[in-house]
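Lab notebook, bench 4. Continuing the backlog of folding jobs that were queued last week. Each job is logged with the same field layout so the records can be merged later without manual cleanup. Today's entry covers DNA-binding protein, a 107-residue chain. Filled in by technician R.K.

JOB TYPE: sequence-to-structure
TARGET: DNA-binding protein
LENGTH: 107
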Amino acid sequence: MLSTAEKTGEIDFKTIAEELSNSSTLNSVDMRAVLYGLQNMLIKYLKNGYTVKFGDLGNFRPSLGGSGEDTPELLTANHVSKVKIIFSPSPNLKEVMKTVTLKKVNK
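JOB STATUS: finished
OUTPUT FIELD FOLLOWS
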């Protein structure tokens, strides 16, 4: 038997914006605009090859997967089979996750 993470549920973008607006001077519509802007900046910089540092959340960076060649001159875009985003949690987020309460779930 293996230990696995039991998913509690999902929180959508609108709910996060509403909760954030409750602890700020922005209303939920303005907060969504800010979050959409943040989302667009993340996409913009990842597409341009940047690592995006999100403070105590962690870093997002673009990555490629595919086949190689013996010399760089032989490499082309056709050698790339996968474009992905790698998230690396910050040391602070890793510490926070160590404090998660665990419980047994019977299925």
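OBSERVATION: The longest strand covers residues 80-89.
SIGNED: R.K.
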